[in-house]
Amino acid sequence: MPLSTEARGMVEKYIDTMLATIPLLVQYFSLKTNQQHLQYKEPNDVVFGYVWGAVSAAILPMLLPFSLQQNTPVEDTFEEVRRMLEVRSAEIHDMITHTS
User: Fold this and answer.
1) Can you tell me the distance from the alpha carbon of 26 to that of 34, in angstroms, rounded to the nearest whole number?
2) What pLDDT, on the 0 to 100 scale, is given for residue 21?
3) What pTM was computed for the model?
4) Domain tally, the chain
5) At what angle do helices 5-29 and 74-99 cross, to 10 degrees?
6) What does the alpha-carbon distance between residue 36 and residue 29 come to, in Å, rounded to a whole number?
7) pLDDT value at position 1?
8) Which residues of the chain have pLDDT under 70?
9) Contacts of 22 by beta carbon, 8 Å cutoff, 6+ apart
10) Which residue, 27, 28, 39, 52, has most beta carbons within 10 Å?
11) DSSP track, 20-75
12) How far apart are CA 29 and CA 34, in angstroms?
């Protein structure tokens, strides 16, 4: 595992932060006007993609210094974050489902 305990903690904390925003995201993306303007059918899928993308976009740039310090290929760091998200994806889906 290329990420240090500190870096893994950052990722987990950010995922937890995004989990807390899911009720608001479900509410926002469930509005019919948003569905019509943005042209999507499944608000829950949009919320899942939003959370996944937000974690990736926010965390990966912050982890680059960790990769460089540990002399780890950036691709390995990206892959570990993806795996962490994959492990937590059931929790993300459950939160979305129980909110809608």
Assistant:
1) 11
2) 96
3) 0.84
4) 1
5) 40
6) 10
7) 52
8) 1
9) 47, 51, 92, 95, 96, 99
10) 52
11) HHHHHHHHHHT-HHHHHHHT-S-HHHHHHHHHHHHHHHHHHHHHHHHHHHTT--HH
12) 6
What confidence score (pLDDT) does residue 69 get?
78
The confidence score (pLDDT) of residue 29 equals 96
Domain range for residue 84?
5-99
pLDDT at 52: 93
Tokens for 44? 């829950």
Cα dihedral 30, 36, 42, 44 sign:
negative
**How deeply is 14 buried, as exposed, middle or buried, from its count of CB atoms within 10 A (0-12, 13-18, 19+)?**
middle
The pLDDT value given to residue 46? 96
Tokens 């998200």 correspond to 85
Distance, CA of 93 to CA of 100 (rounded, Å): 11
